[in-house]
Design a protein that fits this description.
This protein has 2 helices and 8 strands; from the N terminus they run βαββββββαβ. The chain is α+β, with helices and mostly antiparallel strands. The chain has one domain. This is GNAT family N-acetyltransferase.
Amino acid sequence: MGTIEVRPATPQDHDDVAALHRREWGGAYVVVHDTRYDLRTLPTLVAVDGAGGFAGALVHRLADGGLEVVSLARFHQRRGLRLVAVDAGAVDRARQVKPTIPSAGADDVPLHDELVLERRRTGTNR
């Protein structure tokens, strides 16, 4: 894997981020933990490759003294995030709020559960 830079999104990233959200989530709205979010209103980080090409995006919010990832696409597995929980049926419940959520994802894998990923910071002062 080549070099990836992660930085705050700028207005110049809008089209790439919007296209990614359309492709991955069907638009700018997602339902996480039974709450509907407009991804356009939350802080966004983008990943770009060594040539400056768009490689992915992470949308987050501050919650409960920490940072909650609301939308993450394409680069999470290589960034030290760990699976810490599965919310069984969360996608089925979200589909009741947002019916456009597909019933199957890549390779026709059924979508039912929400995966909770976490990356712990190390150090005593954090």
